[in-house]
Sequence to fold (124 residues):
Amino acid sequence: MNEKNDISCKDKSISIWAKKHKKDIISVVAIGSATVISVVLGVKCKDLLKDNEFLKKENVRLANKCNDLLNDTNLLKKDNMRLTDLCFEKDEYFKELMADGLRHKSSLAAKHMADRKDYLKLVG
Fold:
């Protein structure tokens, strides 16, 4: 029976102590919670900053790659124009050659002239 009385006395004394120090207990719990939350948010913020730095570097890398691709595209456009001009020049020489061949009664020149005529009908 003494043990029961001891336990209930301890329970009562803890209860009385808790009631007397209610504000202190709430303050300690609040400060502890705020500290834990601050640490968790700090870690998350640090991770976000690392992610942000990575994204900035990736953005710069992709922007540089885009600029390189634009430069390559411009070079390809210039090459295409140069090759198109060369094709027109080659066609002019070939037309002169066909005309000269026809003046000299070349059957090969006549065949090429007929092929060119058919080609022009196809392409419009």
Notes: The CA atoms of residues 101 and 107 lie 8 Å apart.
